[in-house]
Amino acid sequence: MLELKPLTREAIPKALEKAERYRLLNEPVEAESICLDVLRVEADNQRALVMLLLALTDQFEEDIPDAVLKARELLPRVAGPYERAYYAGLIAERRAKARLKHGGPGAGSVAYELLSEAMACFAQAEPLRPPGNDDALLRWNACVRLFARHPHIVPAPQEVAEQQLE
Asked: Are 8 and 64 contained in the same domain?
């Protein structure tokens, strides 16, 4: 089996710049790989953790196996209650968008649940935000606008929801 080669600590800043570029080029799997290499050297590198989480959420629309699970598993490693709440909301929001893109039966009700979860996380993050950082408010507003653009985003009918709980 082939073995991974470790990065040097000195190369980490440039590696993270490359990971960011790969995300911007819509190549999240490449960004994910770089972040994993950085985290092998610096397990608590917050920039790498957040970028990895974002690279994973970039993969939601492509329905990459385990991307949601991996993103959620990273949340406890993200420093700070604001950041954890904000990124939990971002995961839910991006899952909702991916579900809407894929469509299918129940897509609107699944998106409703996920957007409601996202908005609850953004509301939790709002009072914890640092001065001058309104990112949670921006995401909240984006969710409100998504609801407005897609009138089929509605809660599941009560009897369907009850059947799913059984």
From this structure: yes
- The 10s digit of each residue's pLDDT in 39-59 is 999 999 999 999 999 999 999
Which residue, of 45, 74, 103, is where some domain finishes?
A: 74
- Residue 46's domain comprises 1-74
Please tell me the distance from the alpha carbon of residue 146 to that of residue 97, in angstroms, as a whole number: 9
Residue entry with tokens 């998504």: 146
Is the same domain home to 67 and 96? no
Q: Are 100 and 67 found together in one domain?
A: no
Q: Is 65 helix (H, G, I), strand (E, B) or coil?
A: coil
- Number of DSSP helices (H) and strands (E) in the chain, helices first: 8, 0
What's the rounded Cα separation, in Å, for the pair 70 and 67?
Answer: 5
Task: Name the CA dihedral angle for 147, 27, 121, 80, rounded to a multiple of 10 degrees.
Answer: -160
Query: Per residue in 82-121, pLDDT tens?
Result: 999 999 999 999 999 999 999 888 899 999 999 999 999 9
Q: Whole-model pTM?
A: 0.91
63-72, 109-118, 153-162: lowest mean pLDDT where? 153-162
Check residue 64 and give its pLDDT. 80
Identity of the amino acid at 52: L
Number of domains in the chain: 2
| 69 and 84 share one domain | no
